[in-house]
Every structure is written in C-alpha cells, then in structure tokens.
Amino acid sequence: MTMTKFTVLLPIAGALALGGCISFGAKPPPVLLTLESAQSVPAGETRSSASAATITIAVPSVSQALATTRVPVQSSATSVAYVKDAQWVELPARLFARLAADTVAARTGRVVLSTAQSFSDPGARLSGELRNFGVDGSTSEAVVTFDAALIRTTGEVVEKRRFEARVPIAAIEANAASQGINQAANQVAGQVADWVGK
C-alpha cells in the first residue's frame, strides 16, 4: 500500500519540480502598448445609416515584419530589428483600423462599419496596406505609412493614395517609440478622414 502511494506521488513531485524550470513562451514585457485616438465619437451618441452615409473600414494588410505584436526598427534599407521590451497589446493592423474608424466617425459624421457589419449596405469601402508602423533607426523617427484604397460609392472606381507621418522620438525604446507611433498614427488617421470626407 505504501509502495503504491510512493510510485504515484513520485512522478507528480517530479512534474512540479520541473514546472519551475520550464518556460513555454517568451518572458512578457513589463507593459503592453496600445494606441489612443485623438478624436472619437462621444459616448451615448447614436448615428443611423438612415440619415448618415456609411463606410466600411477593413483591417489593412501588412508585411511579415508587421504581422507581429513587436515594434520594428528599420535599421537599414535591408534590415529590421525590434525595440527591446516593446510589444503591442494586439496586432498593429487591428490597432490602426480601430483608430482610423474612431477618427473617420468623429471627423466625417459617417456611420463606420466593420466588414462583419457591412453585408446589407457597405457604403463607401476603405482598405489598404499598412506599410510602416514602427521606427526609422537612421533618423530616430516614428513612422506610419498607409497605402489606402477607397471606393466611394457602389461603383467599382478605386481611388488610391499614400499617407505618411513622421514624428521625432528621443530614444529608440518602448515608451518613446509607442508615444511617437501613436502621434504619427493619429496624424495619418486624420489625413485619411479628411480625404474620405471630401
């Protein structure tokens, strides 16, 4: 009876001892970074597609360098590194799409729809590619570049335009980089909203 208890408890004790030695993922950074919209629709305000134009904003496509929650640093024309201890709370494309939706809604008065909400009446359609969403190491600037594609009506005419903002940062580290990228992303979102609203 004692031998049976011992043989059962021994593997459990071994597993518990190893639990302190094994890590199944990278050590998380001290904080996760996010974007804050400079403009948004006030809480409680109701908008209806019966009285306002609609626009569907898609999550932009990205290169492999941006298909991660890490913050890229373009250290040369052909090499990319990442800011130490800097990680977004979610993928940059989703953060930027949400920021653009807040800004377009606030500045244009349009009803902004996600692709999941747009089946009955998508209205205008905004999509594109997020080309830069990080730091230019050679100039110490936060850089956000968005190649936008806009279909204004139910027709098939596509307008394309590149938007870019650069914001100087004091150091290539998590806090300075996130603040600079947040400012640059808001500038780009504002430019996009003004283009959509014209």
Automatic annotation (TrEMBL):
PROSITE patterns (alphabetical): PROKAR_LIPOPROTEIN
Domain ABC-type transport auxiliary lipoprotein component per the UniProt entry, residue ranges: 40-193
InterPro entries, A to Z: ABC_trans_aux
Signal peptide coordinates: none
Domain of life: Bacteria
Transmembrane feature ranges: none
Identification of the protein by name: Membrane integrity-associated transporter subunit PqiC
